[in-house]
Write a structure and sequence with these properties.
2 domains; five-stranded antiparallel beta sheet; alpha+beta; single chain; 25% strand; 249 residues; 8 helices; three-stranded antiparallel beta sheet; 13 strands; 31% helix
Amino acid sequence: MQSSYILEYARKAKDYKDNFLRKNSKSASDLHYRFLYNENGEACLEFTVTPKIGYTWPEPTWVGYTWGNTKGKIGNGEIKYSLTRKLKDGAQHRMDLRRKDAMFVEIEKVVLQITKDYQYDFKSAYGISVKYRRPNIKKAVCGGYASAVVEAFNNHPLLDKVEEWSSEKGNHAWDVLILKDGRKLYCDATWYQGNSIDERGYVVDIPIQNPVDLTFDLDEFNSLGGAIDKATGKLLAVHFAWGDAKVKN
């Protein structure tokens, strides 16, 4: 794990650390931390007090702060998956590196705008009645998102071609963006949008820049960054792993 992530967890746990110090009347120099993943792949930041000469403190006991795993459903909602924090952090680190690529940044801006212009049509897809905070927002399911990506990148100076892919078996559609330098960006604007409903029944209005929904890495794109199929316990295979996946254009 990169040191930047250790520092990130340290910042998140600052309140916990300060409360621990106040409760035990210790100074910051007495407290140390270590970053690790437990046997379940969860991320932990653990603190301990270092004994000082002249004091009669007991042996240090590690106390920690844990960030859990992610669970969800994909495709038609029947496939349940679990993504450990360890794998998720690794995917996020790779995304952070991708966002240092100027071409990636320019393309991501366009995808992000699409996900702001559209919201998922839960009624059409699943028969679920939802509310929208922007009543006139354009609504679409995966095919609409994929087509919007094709249209948005038509004659784009960085791209040579955009392929629109789909799978009847997975009940899903997505895109492959072929850059003029030969690289391929695998894009799932539908999942990039988030597709979630809040506790008041509104479609969430903030797109999620997910690490694996816009990537140069086919394996990462096809596995949701390391998601495990809860039914089989094996790495989840989606997108091009659906046997009937085909390009539309």
